[in-house]
Design brief:
The protein is α/β, with parallel strands linked by helices. The chain contains 20 helices and 16 strands. Helix 3 crosses helix 4, helix 11 packs parallel to helix 12 and helix 15 runs antiparallel to helix 16.
Length: 454
């Protein structure tokens, strides 16, 4: 059951699906439904959902109960022994922010849509904050400015808080991924002269750009290459290139292709220098990409500010998940201060009807989507890839690191404070290129690959 689902629906399920996005068919519409609810109604359903999870962790028993007594009676019965209105009020209220003037860094890509759009569309103001969103040149700069407290929080690649916390690429500093910014939304893109290289096995000898070493792009591209018999460290060249510079490098033939956010891929098509080979979701539908991240110090010293900031971002995420809002969002984030891109390019990404550069028009409304829940199993998978490719040395306590870095939503945190039970687990299985990942067996997963560094 999503935190945006109707807790008294006979169609809702308490389980999550293997696709990585939805608990049921109803879940596909849950985020859209959330955007139509008032804050009070949405908060009340979050609280009720938490209680229903605690009382009925099994779908069949919950549905049998609802069928026997009816949804209205069930809601009334729930209210008689648990003060839903009082709990909702407690959830909706936060203390006065310790600081209201904030700086949040971002890279100009569509993965950061909730963080960016929350500024021009008023979500930060709605939650009592004056946030300056600061466009930043590259991921190392975002990391350093956040560590040095020039930014209060930041848009980061989902693996970055894991890397920072473990001292990979910097001194170890406790960081968290408080929410996932986007799922899917990346494209394998090749230079226009490589139209004959649709078979991944033919990519041997090519030069590819990735945004950062600690990125889903690095891990997904390596995974794709290795599954096709190519060693990503010897059979191709991988180069770190900031996303805003990728199209220029493709045009200059400094690289042959890249795996990058969809707005970068779509710009390559728009400029006539590249074509979209495939979407990343064809490998793993529902995979995470970017996150809203902050230091543990920021959360502990400014808990009310953090709560308000996370609320604003989750609120914006719910709005962005609604298909009918996507065109307006594309217009809002197109200006130079944000993505500096033609609105038509961003609309093709967010709406999902796009040109692939090969003369075809594709239509995939879920090309990119927005779901804030930071599953621990996402973190465990990322850690397995860090281990697989030699970024992590020695033993890894996968579950411990995942629990420390990938946090539950603000809703789950508040439920715990009120004595409620959030989702019983933050782990789930999913498939990557048809291979099932079991987060309970990460070491075995790493060992199962023929091409690896450790």
């Amino acid at each position: 059951m999503s935190m945006f689902s109707n807790p008294f629906s006979l169609k809702s399920t308490l389980r999550r699906c293997l696709c990585g996005r939805h608990a049921s068919a109803e879940e596909h519409a849950a985020a859209e439904r959330a955007a139509t609810l008032s804050d009070e109604a949405r908060y009340k359903e979050v609280v009720a959902s938490g209680l229903m999870r605690a009382l009925f962790p099994n779908d069949l028993k919950r549905r049998a109960f609802l069928k026997a007594v009816g949804t209205s009676t069930a809601a009334a019965a729930l209210a008689t022994f648990f003060p839903l209105d009082a709990a909702t009020e407690a959830f909706a209220q936060t203390g006065k922010p310790e600081k209201t003037d904030l700086k949040v860094g971002f890279i100009p890509i569509t993965c950061a849509t909730p963080i960016i759009m929350a500024h021009p569309m008023g979500f930060y103001t709605k939650h009592g904050l004056n946030v300056e969103v600061v466009k930043t040149a590259g991921w190392a700069v975002v990391r350093d400015k956040t560590i040095n407290k020039e930014y209060d929080a930041a848009h980061m690649l989902a693996p970055m808080p894991l890397a920072i916390s473990q001292g990979l690429g910097s001194n170890p500093i406790p960081f968290v991924a408080a929410a996932i910014e986007n799922i899917n939304g990346q494209s394998f893109t090749l230079g226009i002269k490589h139209k004959d290289k649709m078979d991944v096995k033919s990519w041997k000898g090519l030069k590819f750009a990735i945004p950062y070493d600690f990125s889903m792009h690095n891990y997904l591209l390596r995974y794709l290459l290795a599954e096709n018999g190519l060693d990503p460290d010897t059979d191709v060249q991988l180069r770190v290139v900031p996303p805003p510079e990728m199209v220029a490098n493709l045009r200059a033939e400094n690289i042959d292709g890249f795996l990058a956010p969809d707005n970068v891929a779509q710009r390559a098509v728009f400029d006539g220098v590249g074509f979209i080979h495939s979407l990343s979701k064809t490998m793993w539908d529902g995979h995470p990409c970017c996150s809203f991240a902050a230091s543990r110090e920021f959360i502990s010293t400014m808990p009310n500010t953090y709560a308000a900031l996370l609320r604003a971002i989750v609120d914006a995420t719910g709005y962005a998940s609604k298909a009918q809002n996507r065109k307006a969002i594309a217009e809002a984030i197109a200006p130079a201060a944000y993505l500096n891109a033609p609105p038509i390019v961003l609309e093709q990404v967010l709406v999902g009807k796009y040109a692939d550069g090969l003369g075809n028009i594709k239509d995939d409304p879920k090309r990119v989507d927005f779901d804030p829940f930071p599953w621990d199993s996402f973190a465990v998978w990322m850690l397995t890839q860090m281990k697989r490719w030699g970024q992590i040395k020695g033993e890894v306590d996968y579950t411990k690191v995942a629990n420390e870095v990938f946090l539950a939503t603000d809703a789950a945190k508040v439920m715990k404070e009120m004595g409620l039970t959030p989702p019983a687990t933050t782990m789930k299985s999913f498939s990557v290129m048809g291979k099932v990942f079991d987060p309970a067996k990460p070491a075995e997963y790493v060992s199962s690959f023929a091409i690896k560094r450790s």
